[in-house]
Amino acid sequence: MANAMPIERLQALDNVEKEIASCIQSAGQALMELSKDKASMKQVESHTSQFLKTLNHVEGELSKHINYLTQVSTGQPHEGSAYGSLKMYKTARHRLEHTRTRLQDLENLKNRALASTVRPTSAQNNP
Predict the structure, then answer these.
(1) Residue 10 belongs to what domain range?
(2) d(CA 71, CA 75)
């Protein structure tokens, strides 16, 4: 599952959706059998068993997908996604721009300080 392409993941989720529909159908058949005057307990148990089996499989598949999505959303490195790397890159670019801005501010401050110390000295030399 971790190496599956996005199309394969979507197909797997489509299959899960179909299994959910099958699960609901099994539950409906079991309830319909129970609503009869002479319900066949064998049929009810068969539909109930199918319902539980499908439900357990759906739960397992959904857990796999949720685990994958949890891994992707936390930025942990995994195959098939560049989210973590892109996030680190953007953060580094932001830090770089901030550092440049701060260095420019310091350069301007230094130039103003030098300009203010140079003016009084030049004014003293030219009476």
Answers:
(1) 1-81
(2) 7
| 32 and 91, same domain (yes or no) | no
Q: Would you list the DSSP string of the chain?
A: -TT--HHHHHHHHHHHHHHHHHHHHHHHHHHHHHHSTT--HHHHHHHHHHHHHHHHHHHHHHHHHHHHHHHHHTT---TT--HHHHHHHHHHHHHHHHHHHHHHHHHHHHHHHHHHHHHHHHHHH--
pLDDT for 86: 82
| pLDDT, tens only, 11-35 | 999 999 999 999 999 999 999 998 9
| Total of domains in the chain | 2
Burial category of 94 from C-beta neighbours within 10 Å (exposed 0-12, middle 13-18, buried 19 and up):
exposed
Question: Could you tell me if 4 and 63 lie in one domain?
Answer: yes
pTM over 0.85? The answer is: no
Q: Are residues 14 and 68 in the same domain?
A: yes
